[in-house]
């Protein structure tokens, strides 16, 4: 039986997700930061006949994140998706997300490597940061403009809204570098919580690549988050990007899939 979760289920949900806490960083972080009563977020739980949890799904704006240990009630959770706000993206652990393929007609699919960084493995401490800026909400439009100039980035209708939400609530941070009066490189976190953070939005304007700018933004960002006692996770989809992150100390722990319509 799939039910909409509230505070009474919180501890059981957290215990269930904690068994793969890195993979569940988004769900755990959003529950910790926004709880069960936000307009832009819902948590749904599949409860078995014996009262045990069989699966969980988070909705954050138009992004749906399902999770289960092995198999998930894709048909039941799909009905929840169809009855809710329009689906922009379905994402999560590859083995779980692919079970939704027979239900939806996805027009785009992307599989990503999922990597984790712990403080003991971090190798790039003490890099220069004089030209780095910690982003404020007023910088959101410039960040989105730079992202839109990069063909590798997926565009989502709620991207700006989500970024402003992240910066306003301090559930993420962004560092950037400006040259010649424009933003040319950045790196950010999202879904920050008391234990972890996800690195996102690592990019460099096409005219300023091969200078190590985004790598430096990322390294400084990681150092600051690690100094707060948290771990970091990120996605990457090509060996070159993976080699850069692995030089920082990131280690692969699985695969992540993103499906969109």
Automatic annotation (TrEMBL):
Gene3D superfamilies found in the cross-reference section: 3.40.630.30
N-acetyltransferase domain ranges (all copies): 130-261
Listed name of the protein: GNAT family N-acetyltransferase
Domain of life where this protein originates: Bacteria
One MF annotation (Gene Ontology) recorded for this entry: acyltransferase activity
This enzyme's EC code(s): 2.3.1.-
UniProt keyword Ribosomal protein, yes or no: no
Keywords on record: Acyltransferase, Transferase
Top EC category: transferase
